[in-house]
């Protein structure tokens, strides 16, 4: 039986087990274009993406890990730093994710803009999977350290930084993932 788009959605998963190659430029353009199809109240298009590839990933690791250490975050132990650097050395593409804050907007609530950005990211994740790649949305690597987002060109006054998508091919076959039954999360209201 041929896999359907629904089958693809049901088999998408997040994984850090990534290696090269990254999507080609043509594949990446299609993946990023899929992000433009997200539901977006007011057509604000609040999502912003910064592509980080090749040797720039090592520079990202240096910059972000140094900023995290300077921030005083005690969770960045030498072991965690080493593991993070080793992981990033295998990742061929990183996409920084942010929500553009429209300070002049009085019509669309900011939480709706944040939801639109999340929907855009989900479209990217689905398109990555449907294109034969895998991804992991990480809020580590200094997501909550203002210096990191500023150095990525996402001024903290104008953007809410939401993390990084690590993108590549699966580095190993993963066992099927058992998902919870949707009925545990759904109720029906009948108006009575």
TrEMBL record:
UniProt key word NAD: yes
Gene3D superfamilies: NADH Oxidase
EC numbers on record: 1.-.-.-
Keywords noted in UniProt: Flavoprotein, FMN, NAD, NADP, Oxidoreductase
All copies of domain Nitroreductase, residue ranges: 10-169
Binding positions for FMN per the UniProt entry: 12-14, 41, 137-139
Needed co-factor(s): FMN
Cofactor note: Binds 1 FMN per subunit.
UniProt GO MF annotations: oxidoreductase activity
Protein family (similarity comment): Belongs to the nitroreductase family.
Listed name of the protein: Putative NAD(P)H nitroreductase
Origin species: Bordetella ansorpii
Gene (UniProt): ydjA
